[in-house]
């Protein structure tokens, strides 16, 4: 989508600032509704939410591809975000429900991780190609058919799974407060990227969002049948997984965002050259996702996270040198391969831990917490901070000094959050498989 943005802007006759809303609309609705989407899957059926989410995503993709004007496109992107927020956490929760701990769940989660890597590779390589050959509308239209296929196939291939005893009435107040609060916070971070830290568009929604989230916590403590049982945050493995995936997302965003800009602006790479330059990272990530899941599942989470976060910090320090000109093999390729090994390894460990000790009735909620951390840290906080540092440290996008400062900022974010995740992680992984508890009702 980001690659197609200049063509989209020209095709619809939009200004640069207005066109950015096509990115913001998706990010705000997706990140804001993830937690709610996961919990609704617990209560009303994870397969049902997966099907509904993919159907809504398909409808949003089709509408975006046919949009006659920018407001329609922005609404379509928000619709895509809502669909993704329903589908993403329920997909992870379904794996936790349908596979007991052990080799079967490890294979399923490794396949999920591998498909994420495939999505990243295809997005980076095909986004520009599709835009150049077919036009920006096909970036959306080509997503419609796979989403429809997934929505049609899920009821034929997956059993239903949900909480054993859904509540007699829905916690509408809690749903409104948490979704509005998260969306306001995300909107505030996008304001930081465009307008700066002290701008009204940044401070006002961030303040409103924090107040709404505080109100949500107070509401849930008094609600007779709360949307979110706050005690789930006391599950240590979920806390460690959410912190780890947040730190990991910050590191990955620094590559997708900062390194791409560094290659394009400071080193003068073309769009295709930059995509090919980053390809080794994605290939390494795919190979790790396919081959390393079982070995990692037998390691101590704390020890493994310690090693891989140390590798990430070392690779980011390497990239923070940001020489101009740069030797691709030594200055870029080597740290990218290190990151291509470390980033998916941490994600594999975290995604296993996220549902490891969760009651079957709350696996969707746990998946929502996990994915919200992933998106808020990587998609919102990371980009906002990196863009702000770039803007504060240089007036020239071609000056490599700004990228050095931004990569150092990435280290200052990743290192302490990763350290806390390591300290929260278990010293030993439970390796004994046990049957899927009867708390999940299936049909």
From TrEMBL:
Tell me the domain of life: Bacteria
User: Which SUPFAM superfamilies does the record match to this protein?
Assistant: MFS general substrate transporter
Tell me, what's a Pfam family for it?
MFS_1
One Gene Ontology term of the molecular function aspect = transmembrane transporter activity
Membrane topology category? Multi-pass membrane protein
**Keywords on record:** Cell membrane, Membrane, Transmembrane, Transmembrane helix, Transport
Looking at the record, the residues that make up the Major facilitator superfamily (MFS) profile domain are 1-428
Write the protein's name: EmrB/QacA subfamily drug resistance transporter
Report TM segments. Answer: 20-37, 49-74, 80-99, 111-130, 136-154, 174-192, 198-219, 240-258, 270-291, 303-320, 332-355, 405-425
Q: Which InterPro entries match?
A: MFS, MFS_dom, MFS_trans_sf
Protein localization = Cell membrane
A single GO CC term for this protein reads: plasma membrane
PANTHER family under this entry?
A: BLR6921 PROTEIN, MAJOR FACILITATOR SUPERFAMILY MULTIDRUG TRANSPORTER MFSC
